[in-house]
Amino acid sequence: MSTTTASLEELLAIPYVLDVRAVRRDDGEWMCRVSYDELPGCVAEGRTPFEALTRLERLRVATVTDLHQQGKPVPAPRAPLRV
Questions:
Q1: In what side-by-side order are the strands of the sheet with 43-46?
Q2: Average pLDDT, whole number, for the chain?
Q3: Is the CB of residue 26 less than 8 Å from the CB of residue 40?
Q4: pLDDT at 83 (0 to 100)
Q5: Distance of CA 2 to the CA centre of its chain
Q6: For residue range 4-34, what is the model confidence (pLDDT) as tens digits?
Q7: Residues pairing with 50 in the sheet
Q8: Residue (of 54, 82, 75) closest to 4 by Cα position
Q9: SS (H, E, C) the chain
Q10: Using CA atoms in the order 25, 62, 79, 22, what is the torsion angle rounded to 10 degrees?
């Protein structure tokens, strides 16, 4: 499937590899940072994993929708790590 000819529904169903990290902010508070590295700007933080993932999902949908509406290709996800 080419991301330039796929429907928005198909593009939103693409599974991306989730990067999850615990990060300590400058103020000393620990946060959960999640991202989809292939999608520009898809990084979110939250005090809990659920909060961070909820924010990230909103960003993913907005990013993919914007790229699709502008006629730009949606980046393909990287291959998962193999054991």
A1: 19-24, 30-35, 43-46
A2: 91
A3: no
A4: 62
A5: 19
A6: 678 999 999 999 999 999 999 999 999 999 9
A7: none
A8: 75
A9: CCCCCCCHHHHHCCCCCCEEEEEECCCCCEEEEEECCCCCCCEEEECCHHHHHHHHHHHHHHHHHHHHHCCCCCCCCCCCCCC
A10: 10
Q: Over pLDDT 70: what percentage of the chain?
A: 90
Tell me, what's the pLDDT at 79?
A: 75
Q: Which domains does the chain have, with CATH numbers?
A: 8-69 (3.30.160)
Q: Contact, 32 vs 47, CB < 8 A? A: yes
